[in-house]
Amino acid sequence: MTNRYQVFFLFIPSLGFVLRHVQKAFFKSPILLGFLCLILSGCYSFTASTLPSHIKTVHIYEVEDKTLDPVLANNLRAGILELFRKNAGSVRIVNDEASADFKVTLLNYSNRPDNYNSADQVETYRVTIRVSVLFYDNVKERVIYEEKNLSADGMYDVQANETEDRHGQSRAIEKLQDLIITNALAKW
Prior knowledge:
CATH architecture of the largest domain: 2-Layer Sandwich
Shape: elongated
Number of helices: 5
Structural class: alpha/beta
Helix content: 25-40%
Number of strands: 6
CATH class of the largest domain: Alpha Beta
CATH superfamily of the largest domain: Lipoprotein like domain
CATH topology of the largest domain: Double Stranded RNA Binding Domain
Number of domains: 2
C-alpha cells in the first residue's frame, strides 16, 4: 500500500528535479542555448571601461592553496584567467609588474553528500569552495575589491554519472567567478 505522501511526490516533482531537466533542455537545444546566451550576455561581465581607466595590466597570481589540493588551485586560477580574458576588454594579463594585482587564496574545500534517494543512497553531492580575494590597484595604492570569506558550491548527480572534479568543482568555480564579478562591480 502506498503512502499518501509518496503519491503526492509522484505528481509534484521537486524543484531540483525540475531545474535539472530545464537546464538539460537549454543545453541540448542550440536555439534555446543561443537565446539564453543572448539574454545573459550583458549580465555579470565587466569591461575595461568599468575598471578604473588607469588599469591597463593585471597580474593574476598563482592561487595560494591552504587545502593542499594543487589541482583544484590550478583549476581555480584557470577559471579566473578565463574570466579576465573574456571580460576585461583591453586590459592585458601580465606575469610581472602591473597596474593591478589579483590574488586568490583557496581557504577551504569540501565534498559532502547532499541528497539521498529512498534507498538511502547518495544521489547528489555538494562541493563547496571557500576563498579570499584581493584586487589591488598598484597605481593609486588602494584596494579595488576585497573579500576575505567568499564561498560557492556546485552540485553533481552521481546517478547521472557526474563527477566531483568535472561537474561539482567546475560549477562551484563558475559561481565563484560570477560572485567575484558581481561583488567587485558593486564596489568599483
